[in-house]
Specification:
- The chain is α/β, with parallel strands linked by helices.
- The termini are far apart.
- It has helices at 3-16, 41-50, 61-74, 93-99, 113-123, 154-157, 175-181, and strands at residues 54-58, 79-82, 103-104, 128-132, 135-137, 142-147, 161-167, 171-172, 191-195, 200-202, 208-210, 217-223.
- The protein has a single domain (35-202, 209-223), classed as NagB/RpiA/CoA transferase-like (Rossmann fold).
C-alpha cells in the first residue's frame, strides 16, 4: 500500500467512523468515617513542621493579621502581592497592611508579550506573596491552593516567601477526603496545587536545596477562630 492510498483510507475512516455511546455506570464512592477538622490541627502542625513549613497557630483574625505583619517586619519587606480581600479568610487584611505602611503590588499579568515581560520584571523583586488556602491535609501537612480570578497563582509561586492563610475548619485527614468533598474543584480552578513545604530540589548527590523553583519559605497561618469572616 502506497502513501497516497494509506492517507485516503485514513480520511475515509475519519468521515465514516463512529464511537459507540458510552454506558453510564454509577460506581460507589469511597466511604469515610466522620471527622472533626479541629481534631486534626495538632497532626497538621506536626506534619507541616516536618516538611520545613513554618506554622503560626492563632486563635483570632486580629492575631492572624498581626502575625502577617510580624513576618513582613522580620524580613524587612515593604512590598507584597496578594489575593483580593474577598478571597482571604481575614476580611480587610490587604487594606490593613497598606494602612500599616506596606505596599501591595498589583500582580495582574497583561496579554501583550512586551507588557507581560515588563510586568514579570516588575514583580520579580516582590519578597512576599499572600494567599488563602482552600484546604489543609493533616497527613502530609500540605495546603491546597486553588487559583482563579482574583486569586492569582503568582502570589504562591514567584516571591521567595509565601504566606498561606488557612482556617482550621478546612482541614481534612488526607487527599481522598478532600477530593470527595470537592469533586469539581479542578473545573472551578485555573490552577490547583497541593503545596507541601517550601520549594526544594536535590542534586545528584542528594543534597537538598530550598527555594530553587519556588518560595524558599512557606508560612502557614492556621486560624482557629469564628467560622465567619471578621474584620481586623
Amino acid at each position: 500500500m502506497n502513501r497516497r492510498t494509506f492517507l485516503s483510507n485514513v480520511r475515509h475512516s475519519l468521515q465514516t467512523g463512529y464511537l459507540p455511546m458510552a454506558q453510564s455506570q454509577a460506581l460507589p464512592g469511597p466511604s469515610f468515617s466522620p471527622f472533626d477538622p479541629y481534631d486534626l490541627a495538632d497532626q497538621f502542625v506536626e506534619q507541616a513542621l516536618a516538611v520545613k513549613s513554618k506554622v503560626h497557630h492563632v486563635t483570632s483574625h486580629a492575631a492572624g493579621c498581626q502575625r502577617v505583619c510580624d513576618i513582613f517586619t522580620k524580613h524587612q519587606a515593604t512590598w507584597f502581592m496578594a489575593w483580593r480581600d474577598e478571597f482571604l479568610p481575614i476580611h480587610g487584611l490587604n487594606t490593613e497592611l497598606v494602612q500599616r505602611g506596606f505596599q501591595c503590588q498589583d500582580s495582574t499579568i497583561p496579554n501583550e508579550p512586551a507588557d507581560r515581560r515588563e510586568k514579570h520584571l516588575a514583580l520579580s523583586d516582590i519578597p512576599i506573596g499572600l494567599t488563602g488556602a482552600l484546604a489543609g491535609l493533616a497527613d502530609t501537612g500540605s495546603v491546597v491552593v486553588s487559583c482563579g480570578e482574583g486569586r492569582g497563582r503568582l502570589a504562591s509561586l514567584l516571591p521567595p516567601i509565601h504566606i498561606a492563610l488557612l482556617e482550621t475548619r478546612l482541614l481534612f485527614p488526607g487527599i481522598a477526603h478532600f477530593v470527595q468533598a470537592h469533586s469539581d474543584v479542578a473545573k472551578r480552578s485555573s490552577n490547583l496545587v497541593f503545596i507541601t513545604g517550601p520549594s526544594r530540589s536535590g542534586d545528584i548527590e542528594q543534597t537538598m536545596t530550598l527555594g530553587v523553583h519556588g518560595p524558599k519559605e512557606l508560612h502557614v497561618i492556621l486560624i482557629t477562630a469564628d467560622h465567619n469572616k471578621t474584620e481586623v
